[in-house]
Amino acid sequence: MTPAGFAIEIQDLVKIYKVKSPHPVRALDGLSLAVKQGEIFGLLGENGAGKTTLLRILTTLLHPTSGRAILMGLDVERRAYDVRKKICAVLQENAVEVFLSVEDNLMTYGRFHSIPRHEIAQRADRAIEQFGLGEFRKQKVMDLSGGLKRRVQVAKVFMVDKPVVFLDEATTGMDPINKRGTLEAIREQARQGRTILLTTHILEEAEELCDTIAIIDRGSVVAQGDPDRIKSLGSAIVEIHVIYESIHEGALGELTQLPLVKLERRNLTLDLRVNAKQISPFDVLQKVGQVGPVISFEVSSGSLEDAFIELLGKRKARTGGAP
Amino acid sequence: MIAAVMYREYLIRTTSMVWAFYDLFMPLTYLLLFGIGLDRAFASGVQSGGQILGYNSFFLGGVLAMAGFGIAINTAYGFFVDRENGMLYEFLTYPMTRGEFLVGKILFNSSLALVQAAITVGLGALLLGIPLRWERAGFLLPGVVLGAAGWFFFLTTFALRIRRNDMFNTFINVAYFLLMFGSSLFYPLEGLPLWLRSISRANPLTWHADVLRYLTIGLGRTDTILAESAAFILFTFLSFLAAVRTLQRGVVK
Question: Which residues in chain B have Cβ-Cβ distances shorter than 8 Å to A111?
Fold first, then answer.
């Protein structure tokens, strides 16, 4: 652990590709962040934002151009070998031994991570059961579907007890049942004190799973905090869902005159989206109450996706990029 | 950790018996077909180092060197398969040094080269009557292992830097052709024109073939062979350093 109690600490990290070319690519641009031990930390950003580059630096695959990354108290660049003893990773590619069976994939992974011989089979059995791979255990991975290959890949990292786990879009291609199981497995690992750093494009997944989220864009952090804070930072959207006993059409007509982001009616149900910067949600609620006798209603803040789009949109507007 | 890499190589290799058969019996087949053909063509023998030898005897060391080179190519080609499967990057995040990874890969395949050499030398002597220097047979072990390792480390740098499969195939075809025919693999260097002899003398495949020839049939001067051995060890060491450096800096773009 670093003295400050963080599992990962990144300071002013810069990575420039094609340094000597006339058009160098600045993938990381002075990125700084810190990940606490035992937390699930989500890294969100558009394609090309720098997520994968950051993960590759932290997993010792790439050298940064400048800046510093410390993992469990170890400098990632200077003590790469020691860092590799502390980590395991699911990278973006389907990294599986296609010529080997599911079982042999897990057994070889166990050997590479120095699990005692007598424990490897036991742990492999557990991972096979946890990820529903029992019926495929003797099959060569080359004969499996993309989703199953991904399951094998994710199952591997849950065999070992490394303090830091990197998951780059780990649930891509999985069916909903396995995705649910994988998310539960990730939570379980965090409960055991492992630090999980994940990237995903599925924002509901990040919202549900992560203790802390960082949104990065063009190689630097745009926003960081727990999901609720991120939502409040980025979005002024309020969602209102109402079910009526009956609807008074005249009052509904008045409601439609308000500057709402969305108003959708399905029989006796209304779904509204309000931008709090355009109109007070309380004024809207008052009009909503006049539409008819209410059976139930629910008010919620906007989703993480709203915040994500708004934060990145604002930044692009400021920097002149396309929204 | 080296043992884990070897175990993985063993599992991969044993998934295809065609691969294993090709690796183990290819040199013997070469000796039996190509060797016998040229042995008949040069019925009066081949002159080398002041001796007249049957072509098969001369060719045995060349076949062993070529086989080690072939194993090195197959092992280096494995990087492309690993890259396609996404495994290459994952390996590089495992708790092992880049050197351990390379050594583990070639150690298993060198043991294949040893079995291959034993089959080729044993059956070559039995079927073709090649007169062997049995007292030197023990030295064949480091000769064969080092040969496969040296060429593997050399090719690794190219396999990792050339990112396209078809480009690597072209590179291998050209390298194979130039290195094999610009060496003492198939013919003695004495009778060659100066330019080709000079090129061949500087070719590590010549050094490797000469050492193996010395160890199997006793051809060559001891001082020359020692110098060639030292040069090949240096070649192996430098290739190893280059391969490790490439794994450290040049794989992920």
Answer: 3-4, 7-8
